[in-house]
């Protein structure tokens, strides 16, 4: 399991004096980028293959409040991936300095071609690296249907006049 340590900064705290919601998202994003960088999926390779990661959703479940003064740790495991690597699902757990699980998040995303702005599979070299990542016990091979499993569709405003 990949684990990243964070010190809670003053700017990470909200009006209730605990870790703000958006800080959890920042910490997970930083954890993912650190993880990918360590495994050869940093900016160099992303530029080489014209790839960019995109988030589809992040579901966070909070178990305990987190306050400044003690570090927290964010884990990352691969919960799912499509056969071509186009779609991925990461599982993040947050732990306090004692190892207590304080929050959990499931994040689904994909890779886009930076020129066409469409989802794309990973090149063989990068797909091989992805396949070697630590996986959750409930790892699943994803399909495009999994990206729409929550049945969320955009609803435009009719006769919108700002």
Characterise the protein shown here.
With 162 residues, the chain is α+β, with helices and mostly antiparallel strands. 20% of the residues lie in helices and 36% in strands. The protein has helices at residues 21-38, 43-48, 124-131, and strands at residues 2-6, 51-62, 72-82, 87-95, 101-113, 135-142. Strands 1, 2, 3, 4, 5 and 6 form a 6-stranded mixed β-sheet that branches. A hairpin with a 5-residue loop joins strand 4 (87-95) and strand 5 (101-113). The longest helix has 18 residues, at 21-38. The radius of gyration is 17 Å and the shape is globular.
List descriptors.
162 residues, alpha+beta, Thiol Ester Dehydrase, Chain A, 6-stranded mixed beta sheet, globular
Distance between the termini: 48 Å
Tally of helical runs: 3
**Architecture in CATH?**
Roll
What is the β-strand count? Answer: 6
Roughly what fraction of the amino acids lie in strands? 35-45%
CATH superfamily: Hotdog Thioesterase
> What is the CATH C level class, in words?
Alpha Beta
Structural class: alpha+beta
H and E string: EHHEEEEHE
Give the CA-based shape: globular
- What average pLDDT do the residues reach? 94
Give the helix level as a range of percent: 10-25%
> In angstroms, what is the radius of gyration?
17 Å
List segments where confidence is low: pLDDT < 50 over at least 5 consecutive residues. none
Main sheet characteristics: 6 strands, mixed
Number of domains: 1
Here the CATH topology equals Thiol Ester Dehydrase, Chain A
């Amino acid at each position: 399991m990949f684990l990243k340590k964070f010190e809670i900064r003053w700017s990470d705290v909200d009006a209730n004096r605990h870790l703000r919601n958006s800080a959890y998202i920042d910490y997970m994003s930083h954890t993912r980028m650190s993880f990918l960088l360590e495994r050869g999926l940093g900016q160099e390779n992303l530029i080489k293959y014209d790839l960019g990661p995109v988030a589809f959703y992040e579901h966070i479940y909070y178990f305990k409040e987190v306050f400044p003064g003690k570090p927290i740790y964010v884990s990352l495991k691969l919960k799912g991936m499509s056969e071509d690597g186009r779609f991925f699902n990461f599982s993040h757990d947050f732990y306090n300095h004692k190892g207590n699980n304080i929050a959990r998040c499931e994040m689904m995303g994909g890779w886009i071609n930076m020129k066409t702005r469409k989802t794309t599979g990973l090149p063989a070299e990068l797909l091989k690296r992805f396949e070697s990542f630590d996986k959750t016990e409930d790892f699943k091979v994803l399909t495009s249907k999994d990206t729409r499993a929550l049945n969320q569709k955009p609803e435009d405003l009719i006769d919108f006049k700002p």
